[in-house]
Amino acid sequence: MHALVIGGGIAGSATAVALRSIGADVTVCEARSAADLDAGLWLGVASNGLSALDVLGLRATTLAASLVDPRTGTAGRSGFAPVRRADLYRILRRAAQERGAVLRYDKKLVEADDTGTATFADGSTVTADVIIGCDGVHSRTRSVIDPGAPSPRYIPLLNIGGFAESARAPGEPARLQFVRGGGGFFGYTTAAGRDEVWWFANLPWPTEPTRSELAAMTRDDLTKLLLDALNDTPPFVRDVIERTGPGLYAVPTHDLPAVPVWRRGRTILLGDAAHATTPTSGQGASMALEDAVVLAKCLRDRPSWHDAAARYEELRRGRVQDIVALGARASAAKLTDASIEDSLEWIHSYRVDWAAPA
Asked: Which stretches make up the FAD-binding domain (predicted)?
């Protein structure tokens, strides 16, 4: 079987690793250059995501690159491993290449037909037995499968974050901490054994900013915006913001409440392309990692592509839609000062039994 993966980020690279583990030939086509993927903020891989990485043989490598205590090598009581997005991507990309996947960059998908042929903006084509859309919340594959597919929904929060060295903040290392201010929401985590704080802030932002508006926000603009919004928080918050390095990022918040059509012909969606959740859920990367393992397992065990695709959707749709709904509730709570009482055990305790048949 030859699988064509559209999108070479975290979801696409994890899918390539998972498919190589069942012997599939894999080509990954990414619209951006490789350098464009080596950027971004940080994310938390929850215990369910770490379990999926364990199936892929990459749990230990990911923990070593994270903020978990290197003396224990475990994610601590929270089961949460903060890791730079670029580092997780590089770990997955390297594993995909080492295990035989072919990665091709500057390949922007234009169209895909039901025979498994994908056409790219440069005029080239690739034909495969299956096409897997891992191209994120603004997925082209999603609209190829269903021209009437929903667009991402804007959640009126602006996400800003960065990395602060020579900074201190209270709390157990690698554990996510929260501070609510009158004009925004501040979250952070710290490193074991060194003065380093990784953080994010959510500020109410009624109208979705354009790319040009975000690009026009200078470092000084963002710093002032944050300090004004969080002026009633403890002093360490100001110190962390002021000590943050040059990589200060601001991005709008989106999710996908429901995507009615996940598959058509030989093409299927995976990760944010099918079920983007807000960062508040802490599950975007972990859901994609689960997806990759479950799809590979279904392709391994089911007698045909159509049977495997149907089983994958059956196993994944209910769970991921519930997580997206939870993320939306949690994001809304940040805007209203409300709280949600949801237990997260059902999310974090999930494990893919790789040995059991799909």
From this structure: 3-300
For residue 300, name the pLDDT band (cuts at 50, 70, 90): very high
Rg of the Cα trace of the chain?
Answer: 20
Q: Are both 249 and 282 inside the same structural domain?
A: no
| CA gap 22, 3 in Å, rounded | 11
**Are residues 297 and 279 part of one domain?**
yes
Q: In terms of pTM, does the model score above 0.90?
A: yes
Q: Which two tokens stand for residue 217?
A: 């926000």
Evaluate whether residue 18 is within a structural domain: yes
Q: Which amino acid is at 42?
A: W
Cα–Cα distances (Å) from 281 to 59, 153, 154, 270, in that order, read 21, 16, 15, 18
Q: How far apart, in Å, do the first and last CA atoms of the chain sit? A: 18
User: Pairing relation of β-strands 267-269 and 130-133?
Assistant: parallel
Residues 63 and 199 in one domain: no
SS3 300: helix
Q: Is residue 356 part of a domain?
A: no
User: Please, are residues 148 and 279 in contact by the beta-carbon 8 Å criterion?
Assistant: no
Within this chain, do residues 25 and 147 fall inside the same structural domain, yes or no?
yes
Q: What is the pLDDT of residue 72?
A: 66
Q: What CATH number is given to the structural domain containing 103?
A: 3.50.50.60
Say how far apart CA 133 and CA 42 lie, in whole Å. 23
